[in-house]
Each structure stands twice: as structure tokens, then as C-alpha cells.
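Researcher: We're teaching a course module on how sequence relates to structure. For the next exercise, students receive a sequence and then see the predicted structure as C-alpha cells, so they can try to spot secondary structure elements on their own. Here is the exercise chain.
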Amino acid sequence: MIQGKTTRDYTVMGRDMSLEEKIGQLFIVDIVGRKITGALFRHFQRFKWGGVILFSRNIGSPHQVREFVSLLQQLAKSESPRIPLLVAIDQEGGAVSHLTVDMALSPGNMSLGATGSPYNAYRAARISGQELRALGINVNLAPVLDVNNNPRNPIIGIRSFGESPELVSELGVAAIRGYREAGIIATAKHFPGHGDTSVDSHLALPCVPHDRERLEAMELPPFAAAVKAGVEAVMTAHITFPKLDGHRPATASKPILTGILREHMGFKGLIVTDSMSMRGMTSYAPSPEACVQALEAGADLLLLCGSAKHQYSCFQAVLSAVRAGRITEARIGESLDRVLSVKSRYSLDAAPLVSAEEKESFKNEMLNITRDSVTLVKNENGLLPLRLKEEEKLLLIRPTFHARSLEDIGRLEAIMKRFLQSRHSNVKELTYNLLAQRINLASVRKEALDARAVLLFVFARAELPKAQKEIVKALVKMRRPPIVVSLLSPYVLDDIPEISTYLCAYNFRENSILAILEVLFGEVEPKGKLPITLPGLFQRGHGLVGWDHKGASFQPPNGGDTREEG
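Model: And here is the predicted structure for the students to work with:
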């Protein structure tokens, strides 16, 4: 059952719409600011957009978001065709979380993969969904169903549940169920798979060289499982698959969207594009032309970021294509029916606010899920758990926190400072800038000389930056082996295999910081298992559980060194 299901049938209203109104319903657009301005009011009056997408720039407090979304819905329903908006957000959890203040944050997909628990994936989605609905958000552009089988993938990585199609399928279906029960329209992405790329489609157009047989075995199973589970929406990938459709991106490929997704998999829901303003798409065709091609390929909803002028040009391109006969009105009608059918099945207005007691319960549950994900990969020298005498010095080296606002940064720093001060009095902290090409190693060496333990937090989406590698090498050379915690990609161990103690947090949000610190001091036992393989080092499923172990050394997968070349 869909929570808060509506009884209004908007598909009937679609029959009386003008062509311009029908086309407007096929766009989800980016908006500027946190309040309704005169310009925004006129923009919506003119184009009758079907939905909006919220980013961090639109978000202040939860109260502000709820009020802003309510006003947007009032605006949409005050003018013909008087149909409520799809209000979308990328709230995947972990690193990709636009709502961070006073929310029960999911640790993200790879953390959930490290727990190996479909129930955890379900509960994380159910809780996130309930909080989103209370703010008036009705579409989450999640879960990511990409199978991350490329260690150097710069854009998916920890956004994936892991490298196993079976695990991604199982946890993805559980998440979809959680969102549905919360009244959220879930969106499986990025079809037909963004996991085996080494290029970020926000910056360029990636190419996946695999044939259909390989895709059927690796990339497609999670999407097939999602379709079978009744997912309402699937988002496309701005990636070329030459063995499927030459150099045309999947977003504009009829053989991929209509042939594979619609006809082969039997998907009857909404096909939503990734942002048509991304370089992965604009490097193929200008956004207006790309929007037309996406509709020709079978897309229903065009996700469009950028200025009002840019949105106007894309709208006009679709309108002109219909008037010229390139796209038939019947084709527009097919997508409109799907959009309005989904709008009819869900209550699109805000759900009741989450009570203070329930919110506290949600936050505790998310923290426990996060605790279950912390993965101890190596503890060769038995440095963990930390057992320091009062006078012994702990050297903490960390990046200046990567966050979307000064408020986020301050909160993370306060959590770490408060935790450490309550456990150990002799802590020296050094920070480094993530953007720095070089780091002052002299201060690192000086402070490490009399340190009993060195705790180093590293941060990278793919390959570990040179400056962070230099910190590790300097510490190892002076025989002060650091306890290394990866705040993002677990694959960075491949760049620093000489370290003897290594943990994976999979994200840098406050729950993960707290859970990692609890594990480091032995207050919580590590339980997580790697949902990916670290080539030539550790295989998927590895993880030191509890403290009753003698350490872990090199463990070649499948009995041999399978370190990948190139």
C-alpha cells in the first residue's frame, strides 16, 4: 500500500490540456533560491512545469523547506492545469545528502552494502522517505543501482551498494520497498549501468565497451529486479555503449531505453533523464536537441538544470519538434499519461511532521546501522582498539572537513573534538587542505616523534591524492605506522598498501565519524564486511569482526595475486 495514496485521477485532466501544458508536465526543473520571487512566479505561470528538483542552494532548515515546497505546490495548483508538482531531490544518503540538518541521515549505499543486510537498506529508505514526505518532497532520485566494478570510478564508488549484482539487486529492491511504504516515488539509477566507468559524466561522456551478454550478467540484473519489484521510475545514464547503439548516449538511445528497458524488461513506469545540462550530454548535443532526442528514445521526464533562459530554449525545442511533426502529439501523450498516472497514485502534498520522539528514534536507528557498517580491513600490529595511558599522546591528522556549509563543518569538528576530549586528554590535531598539492610534512614529523599512536583520516573519491600519500610514506619511514581511516573510497588502500591498520567509514557524515571513533576506542566492535574487492589485497566479504583476532595480512583473492594492470 502507498502511504497517503490520493484518490484524484489526473490522467483525466490531461485530455483537456493545451500542447504547451502537456509538454511542461514532462520537465523537472532546477530553481534558484529559497523563496518564491516574482521571476519564479512568472516562470511557473508561463511553463506549467511538471516538477522541480531541490539542491543545497534551495535548502535552509527543515521548516524552511516544508514551507517553500508548500508554496510551490500552491503556485502549481493555482493556475491551469492545477496539477501538483513532483518535488525531487538527490538524497541518496552518505556523501550525497542535500538535507543534513536535523535529519536521520542514511550512511549511504556502500555502508549499507558493508552491513550486507536488506533489512538495513529497507529501514534506511523507509526512515529517509518518511522524513522527506514530511517536508513535502515526493520523489527521491535513489537508489543507485550501479554495480561498482571499477575501482577508479570517480563518480559512483561509495554511492553503489557494491560490486556484486546479487547484493545490489537485493539491497536495491529492499530500498525501493522502503521508499514506497513511506509514500516516496523511488528512482532506480543510472540505467543501463554507470559502475564500470573511469570518467565522470558530469564532466565528459563516458564509454562502456561491453556487449549485451556482459551487461545482462553484470549491469542489468539490479534494474531487472527493480522493474520486477514495481519501481516507479528509472533514471538514464549519459554514457555510450558502442556495442548497443554506436556513440549515442543511453539517454538518447531508443535501442536502450525502448528496446531493453521498455520491451525486454517490461518497464511501464517513468523513464527520467539525468540532468540534460551535464557535460556528458552536452558534449554529444546541445541541451535543446538532446531533450528532443531523449523523448524520441523513450524518455518521459526531462531533468533540466540551468537558467530560466536555458529551460525556455529546451521547452521551445520540444514544442517546435512536435509542431514540425518530428515528435507526434501521441508520443507526448504517452509520456504525459505515465507522468499523470504516477501523480495520481501518490499523495504529493506534505505528510504530517515527524514527532520529536519518532525523530530521535530514527536518528538512533540510523546510527546503529552506521555502526554495523564500519569495516576493519587490517590490524596487523594490533594497534586497535586504542589503549592509551593518560600521558601518552595521540596525534590526529585529518582533512578540513568536506561539507556543504560552514554549519556542517562546525558540527563535524565539534563531534570529533567532544568525543576525543571525553576519552583522552592528550590529543594533538593537525589538519590539511584537500585541495593542497603539497602538505607541510615537517609539522607531521615533529608531532609524530613523541606520539604513541597516529590516527590519519584520508579522503578520496578514487585515487588517493599525492599529498595524502606523502603523509603516509613519511610516517611509515619514521616508523610511526598510522591508523588509517578512509572517509570515502575504500579502494585507496591500493595506493598505500604499506600501511598495517586500515578502516573504512565509506562516508564523512557525523554518524560515520562517531561510529569510527567508537570502534577505534573499542566501545563498539567492527562488524562490516567489504562489499567490493580490493584488487590484489582483499576480496569481497573480508572484514575483521570483533576484537578476537590476531590481525590481518595480505590476502590475495582466489588464492593468487589478481592486481589489475592499467
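Model: If you want an answer key for the exercise: The radius of gyration is 24 Å. The CA atoms of residues 13 and 165 lie 41 Å apart.
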